[in-house]
């Protein structure tokens, strides 16, 4: 199942509007016990009214998993912007999402969520576990989601959607190797599963295997040419491969279909930055944040366009995003950007702390060092690039004896270039393997 962009935008707008209508009464520590009870009662009444409004507003939208996640994220961040305490915002958001989920229409008896006959003995249990896992995933409860999908796979070891969704949940906690294995298993069960091919391409990009990532993403697009998330991720992969023109073509194709697609806009901003058009890049990153106010890659990218000064607003939001439970690779990109901010304002102790924390996240995601594999690689280089081989290509070099000075630093990924990919695709309806 895919995210419909315009439905997601509507979900975000409804989430913002509802958050603006929710105003829990503030309670002073010095007030009497009776007044506290009165304030709590008012807060409960405000929550009940909010739930009624949310049910009315979202019924027509028929939110899918990703739209529900967009709704919840936008709602929570607007509450925080409006001064609601984080604990209250978390509690109200959880209650709201569960209420919406529980009030969605259940499949007709004897049929799965796609309307197909449920001819398997355990199909109702499988559907329950799939829905439960998807709800946990939407709420950011990744450990619980992993457990639900695992239980489903014990019940039905040939459930392709469960393997796909379990892979997505594992990605969220940085377990990329396991996620890759699950995407492969989903594809093995269902070779034409475009979402799983796209997800496999995404996780291969996370692991720095960009040629393989390109192959998987192109396979996903061959199966489903309108797969906008796979196409935008392909563009990001092509950027990592040093092919900005090819990447730009992919982003432009996405924006023809979805003009506000956040990852395509982010990619266009990175192309503009690569080509030295910094004002245009900044405008594009701002457009990303209009579509998705909390996208880690966009916040991180802004820092790379100029020297930061007293941009306290940027720093505060970046710290909030980094601490909001985002994926480890995304958090690392934001931590690197925060380090760059502190470096710019000459707070070097804080800069070092941020860089150290970002590197720690990346180290935790890296695979074990394989000494024997590295030794074989170096031996192969020595065997192939002999003195005789190198001497045969010297004719193409310049005969000039003038010295060359290379000034500057090597490129890095501190702006999150390699660490932010399009959303993984969660399937919520398929019960067939």
Describe the structure concisely for a colleague.
With 433 residues, the protein is mainly alpha-helical. It contains 20 helices and no strands. It starts with a helix and ends in a 41-residue tail after the last helix.
Describe this structure in words.
The chain is mainly α. The chain has 2 domains: 98 residues; 241 residues, Serine Threonine Protein Phosphatase 5, Tetratricopeptide repeat, CATH 1.25.40. The protein is built from 20 helices and no strands. It is globular. The two termini are 15 Å apart. Helix 12 runs antiparallel to helix 13, helix 13 runs antiparallel to helix 14 and helix 17 packs antiparallel against helix 18.
Give the helices and strands, then pairings.
Elements: H1 5-21, H2 33-59, H3 65-81, H4 86-102, H5 123-139, H6 142-155, H7 160-172, H8 176-189, H9 194-206, H10 210-223, H11 228-240, H12 244-257, H13 262-274, H14 278-291, H15 296-303, H16 312-322, H17 328-344, H18 348-365, H19 371-384, H20 387-392
Helix pairs in contact: 1-2, 1-3, 2-4, 3-4, 3-5, 5-6, 5-7, 6-7, 7-8, 7-9, 8-9, 9-10, 9-11, 10-11, 11-12, 11-13, 12-13, 13-14, 14-15, 15-17, 16-17, 17-18
Task: Provide tags for this entry.
disordered N terminus, globular, disordered C terminus, Serine Threonine Protein Phosphatase 5, Tetratricopeptide repeat, single chain
